[in-house]
Amino acid sequence: MDKIEYSKVDSRLSGDSEEPLLTQRPSLKERIPFENILIAGLLCSNVLFLLLWVRVTTTDCVRPQLIYTPAKHAISYQTKRLFRHINHNVFTGKPRPEYEEAWRKLVEPIAIKVSNKELAKFGQNSIAFKDGSGYVVELQVYHELHCIKQIRRHLHLDYYNVTLSDYDKQFEERHIDHCLEYWREQAICRGDTTLTAMLWNVSLPVSHSYSDNECVDWEAIDTWARSRMVNMSDTSMLDESGPLPEDQ
Ligand SMILES: *[C@@H]1O[C@H](CO)[C@@H](O)[C@H](O)[C@H]1NC(C)=O
Ligand SMILES: *[C@@H]1O[C@H](CO)[C@@H](O)[C@H](O)[C@H]1NC(C)=O
Ligand SMILES: *[C@@H]1O[C@H](CO)[C@@H](O)[C@H](O)[C@H]1NC(C)=O
């Protein structure tokens, strides 16, 4: 193997030094053009910084955006008191027609359409529409809601008059396990650090059932999702050629 010799370079030139470059001041004649360039450079970087700052503060940059989502413009935050009422709530309690309808409607836009450009920004492949107009993807908040709906259904299988074969029973159990794990990971992912106050209930410290939270404007997200909703009960418009599990 060839031996590579590293010679110590002048730290002023290598940029390693924390000393400013101008500690050895050149003569006045040399200094003026250099300082002009420096000042012009600093000015340019200030203008650039200002432009970027204006851009950042005027777009709806409300999340870090480490991961791309085409829904970012539909995200805005508001404070909301969450009550967790279980009485007089269409989403809670025993299954009944209005409960069924409310849950069906809630999870409806789970599959949405994104454009070719949006999928490219997302960076993963997905199932294409045959007509080349875009791709179908899932919006995660709706998958979470779907999972809660499935867990609720599991608690009331008798209501649905479901008789499961051994195979179906195994499938059902795995699905519920998946849903609970999906939910656990999402909760840890969000890491909601909102505080809940506590109080004495007789002699037991308990937390309040309500809390004030920083919530997305759900109407805005739901409206956005519904504007791109894909009805997956008919998959004939989708390109069957892939991707397949081995492509992932
Ligand atoms: C379950 O069966 C009962 C009795 O046949 C019926 O009244 C009820 O509507 C069924 N429930 C559902 C959700 O289909
Ligand atoms: C206090 O405890 C009682 C009895 O367990 C319960 O019914 C009630 O809902 C509790 N109240 C609060 C605010 O937690
Ligand atoms: C999806 O399509 C099916 C039949 O093709 C229809 O019954 C259902 O109402 C549609 N759902 C929505 C949300 O449009």
Automatic annotation (TrEMBL):
Region Disordered, annotated ranges: 1-20
A Pfam family hit: UstYa
Amino-acid biosynthesis: present as a keyword of the record?
Answer: no
The family line of this record is: Belongs to the ustYa family.
Q: Where are the transmembrane segments?
A: 34-54
Source organism's superkingdom? Eukaryota
Query: What residue spans carry the Basic and acidic residues bias annotation?
Result: 1-15
Which InterPro entries does the protein's record reference?
UstYa-like
**Lineage of this protein's species?**
Eukaryota, Fungi, Dikarya, Ascomycota, Pezizomycotina
GO BP annotations of the record are: mycotoxin biosynthetic process
Entry protein name? Tat pathway signal sequence
Q: Which UniProt keywords apply?
A: Membrane, Transmembrane, Transmembrane helix
